[in-house]
Amino acid sequence: MLERIYTGFPKFKLKDEQGIPKDKVKTFPWIHTPYMKRGLIGIQYWEWLSEEWEWIDKQVIDKYVAGKINHPTILIALSGNGLHAGKKAKDNNGYFICDRGSSHIRFQDQILREEYARWGFTFRGVDPRVIEKEEIEYEQADRITIPSEFVKQTFIDQGVPESKLSKIPYGARLERFYKVAEPDTDKFKVLWVGNVCLRKGFMYALHAFQNLRHPNKEFVVIGTVESEIKQLLIGQNLDKVFFLGLIPNAQLPRMYSTASVFIIPSLEEGLAMVQGEALACGCPVIASVNSGSEDLFKDGQEGFIVPIRNPAIMTDKLVQLADDPALRDRMSVAAIECVKSMGGWDRYGEGFRETLLALVEGK
Fold this sequence. Notes:
Largest sheet: 6 strands, parallel
CATH class of the largest domain: Alpha Beta
CATH architecture of the largest domain: 3-Layer(aba) Sandwich
Keywords: Transferase
Structural class: alpha/beta
Strand content: 5-15%
Helix content: 40-55%
Strand order of the largest sheet: 9-8-7-10-11-12
Domain Glycosyl transferase family: 181-335
Oligomer: single chain
Shape: globular
Protein name: Glycosyltransferase family 1 protein
GO molecular function: hexosyltransferase activity
Number of helices: 13
InterPro entries: Glyco_trans_1, Glycosyltransferase_grp1
CATH topology of the largest domain: Rossmann fold
């Protein structure tokens, strides 16, 4: 069904993506690629420059694609990137789908402002120009595709009609992620994979682990530690907490497979794909309701779904798994079966196909 993909990434970054005909990929890397590499020259800390660069990036790719549309088509654009191209598609008797991978942008801005303030930091906030552009896109789009019930509810709460929303949950790459080993029965290992930041609720996970009484526990943290967390870690008890930084993706299946439990208490996310990766490797998940977890697994069956900002409840769930290895084993088996039943990413593809056909058929 695909006619073309336009991306700001260079082609070599897409060499591992199988099944996409290379002649359908058109790159425009002149703004986005240097933006992604800005950390190499140390300017990622110049917030005003990063903000301006990101804004220009979104505008340039949007207008570039708009210039390429001259016939009826369905444009699917990541939110914040499709205002001009979406209008051009509709002007050519086509359709515009705004694909939003996170919560409604106003909810996202508000909850992050609250969270930063709780820990004594000032959140710069989402660029007001980006908020304005995205909300115009929400209004202009024929459909808004979203990955989870949590995200859907944030849009409804902001006044977006439910009829405009198409929920299509993400999947997991079963060819990359599957069980390759067993956890050490003499050790209770809690695993974190992803950015170590306030948005993902890292400090709540750390406090839950600190409060866990276990003679042989570990907290393995994989991902880049953001500056706010580095400040908050000063003076913390980090005994048995191991920060590994970034590791090659090829090592992740073993990390998931040998962990006792995976934890992700995000304040807001569309549908954290690391959950599907963990489940595919037979690792039970403790996730917040704001991580999109309800669209991946059932509470108490493949893991536990918990409220945000509640380390005490997370500690209780850790205790349950640590004290009852049989429960952990049942959840591990259920996790693998759950992800297999989704068919990897096939369910996502079928969901998008149905959305596209319903759109052109006027349903």
